[in-house]
Structures are given as C-alpha cells and as structure tokens.
Amino acid sequence: xxxxxxxxxxxxxxxxxLASPSDQRESHLPRYxxxxxxxxxxxxxxxxxxxxxxxxxxxxxLDYYIDRRWIQGKGVSDEGREQLIFLSGYNPIKLIExxxxx
Length: 102
What we know:
This protein is an all-alpha fold and 102 residues long. Helices cover 43% and strands 0% of the residues.
C-alpha cells in the first residue's frame, strides 16, 4: 500500500507515542518514532495537527469505549462521562490513557 506504483489516491496513517515506550525513544516526533527507514517510506510526510476533541467527538469516543467494554459500571452514567471528560480535558491521548484496559 505504501509503494508508489499506483495513482490518484492517498494513504492516511498515524504515528502514536503509545507504540514506543518513552525510555526507548529520543523524541515524540514522527521522525524518531518511525526511525529513518520508516520515515523515508512515508515520504512525502505531511503532518496534520489533531486538536482536542469537541463535545460531539468525545461523546462518540466514549460510546465506542463503552461498546468495547473499556468503560463499565459508573463510567457509563452521565456523571461518569462528565468525570472522564473533565479528567481528560478533551484530550484524545489522555482519554485513552484513562480508559484503556491495559
């Protein structure tokens, strides 16, 4: 899929710091997370900033986590959702750190 032998398409990927332990990397930037070979494979690399969630996005994400049973019990209630939103500050990474089963 990442080979350049096709036309009129795009590949969208993401780089996640959770996939690389902090004690095993120099930086959180994609160049370091992908290492030289991976970064060159992604050429041209066009970074896209992902802002914090809006209200609709965070509720959609919470619905997904509830469906996957990452959130159970009191976290499913409206009060539990509000606490998770407050604790995460609408930040996608913080929300997954709070809710992930690992």
